Amino acid sequence: MLPTPYIKCDYNKVYEPSEDSFLVLDSLEKDLVYLREKFKNRVTFVCELGPGSGIITTFMIQNEIPNRSNSLYFSVDINPWALDTTLTTAKLNGCSETNCYLECIQSDLTTSIRKRQVDILVFNPPYVPAVNVPEIPSSKENLDQWLDLALLGGKDGMVITQRVIDQLDDILSPTGVAYILFCARNKPEQIVSNIIETCDLWNIDLVKHRKAGWEVLSVYRFSRK
């Protein structure tokens, strides 16, 4: 079992790691051999959307996923507190600028990243169903509003996730893969079925599936055919 990063955060500002976070870690660990074989001997562009506490990005750096010496790690979040916290978490776990490349970027999803550059995309999205997706706060100090952005995903909890899925072809490199987490209320089986029926671009595989309290979570891997 790979070690989990040490986390010391202000959870009034960023999402606290929970069962969904740990399921993503377990999914990446399960696919470790696959990822190292797929991206061996080449520079790899690794991007996490919505890092929150930084636990997932730090886990990937700490455990050399896919290969730290040849990987560039980018954490992208609209929440400025999440970017600060991700850098702090990385440093707490020995991921200094001398032994890895980590860049934290404030952005609305991948709008600031060049097309078809990402080799490994990881996304634990705001998946809780809500009437609307919250507006971006006008001030860094509106802490509750920043946390709402990390949780509430609009109709069926899928508004933000669907934006990423719709843009995957533009986001991923020719050999890129994406790991996306869903909850049962997102209706992931239906989503996957619809994508397969309407789009011939993707192989979509269930990596891990887990019941977490009242919620059922799953991580799917998207890769180009």
TrEMBL record:
Cellular component aspect of the GO annotation: eRF1 methyltransferase complex
Residue ranges occupied by any Methyltransferase small domain in the UniProt entry: 39-128
One of the GO biological process terms: methylation
SUPFAM superfamilies in alphabetical order: S-adenosyl-L-methionine-dependent methyltransferases
Keyword Methyltransferase set for record: yes
UniProt entry keywords in alphabetical sequence: Methyltransferase, S-adenosyl-L-methionine, Transferase
GO molecular function list: nucleic acid binding; protein methyltransferase activity; S-adenosylmethionine-dependent methyltransferase activity
Keyword Methyltransferase: yes
Family to which the UniProt record says this protein belongs: Belongs to the eukaryotic/archaeal PrmC-related family.
Name of the protein this chain belongs to: Methyltransferase small domain-containing protein
Native organism taxonomy: Eukaryota, Fungi, Dikarya, Ascomycota, Saccharomycotina
